Amino acid sequence: MSAGPFALVDASNFYVSCERVFRPSLNGIPVVVLSSNDGCAIARSNEAKALGIKMGAPWFEIKHFAESAGLVALSANFTLYGDMSDRMMSLAAGLGPAQEIYSIDESFIGLDGVRGDLTDRARKVRNRILVWTGIPCGIGIGPTKTLAKLANYISKTAERKPGSYPAELAQVCNLGTLSKEDLDALLAATAVGEVWGVGRRIAEQLEEGGIRTVLELARLDPATVRRRWSVVLERTVRELQGMSCVQMEDVPAPKKEIAYTRSFGRLVTDLEPLLEAVSEYASRAAEKLRKQGSVAGNVLVFAHTSPYRPGPKYHRSVVVPLRRPSADTAAIVHAATAGIQQIYQPGFDLIKAGVMLLDLAPDHRMQGELDLEDDGAAVAERGRLMKVMDGLNNRYGKGTVHVASSGFDDAHRAWRMRQERRTPHYTTNILDIPIARA
Ligand SMILES: [Mg+2]
To answer: Which pTM was predicted?
Structure first.
């Protein structure tokens, strides 16, 4: 178990920052990244935030800024973001001995036992991430994870809104080096809703009770907080008081279920394109399954119409058990397509389908727990085939080798996601690597 202090390294406007690395012309102008199917804004540059564009704003509502303010909208390029995240995380790990990856662009670093000036060390790591990957980060340091998260918020706000906090706290904010008075002044200048784990509803309740700032929350009696609210909020208060209650989770637990669900680019009514889509989703889910070294026992498949459109409604799902737990694409695609055929009904305009792999367990197959009725050699052979398939798809891009049932003719694959504004896979596809010209 690692004690404090802790750091939180968090990229600024991560998806937009990834895009800017490869298209410097996007610097200094308002940029948003749109969700799957180009529906709504899931990342905003500071300039887009300044236009008043909210997180989750639908594209059709903010489209007019393209004309009036030069807003650029891009389709989400998750292949790029995932790869940039790996690079950033491996550099952030250099800050201390323990790392917990908290989201695609955030990781906690346990600093227990790190000697020397932590602020200086954090500045060096931040600079290395910026120079080596092009991604700007904020780093917050504090005696507890909750305070590190708060320090991170201050580091980014101090940079984005000059005057909001002392300028020297921009980019790297170490609460551990401040005097009691300076720390209290910061907490008093920060709204209670910015605290990690204090959601909108609790923030409203606190504000009604006269608790508006972080300092006011930190000064509450933990026992009272427990009685009036919850053990969770009590823990938050203790953490704000400097007592570490939330430990590092060094090893992320393998996912208990794996889902691959997508909205269609266009409404789907016929069985054939539905089978293709479900085959592809099942293949992708199987890839994820193998990546975490698990096998699945059951495959859930579903499809539904849009809840918002007029017309007949349809929402059905079915769980298809596998004959034995497996991570084999063919077995999983077979189960998923059998399932969708079972629940398919003609005459509905379907908007979305998905495949969920349930009942996951570690893959012990290779250690000899073979099904008696199976030919061991054949199973090992299938395992090798899956490895080769994953290897090819990793190297040459997703879907290079795929099951025939997910379709061949791209023009006919109308169910595919709409991503008209996606940038190239700069870092993961040899054909997309940018060429530098002198
Ligand atoms: Mg971030």
So the answer is: 0.66
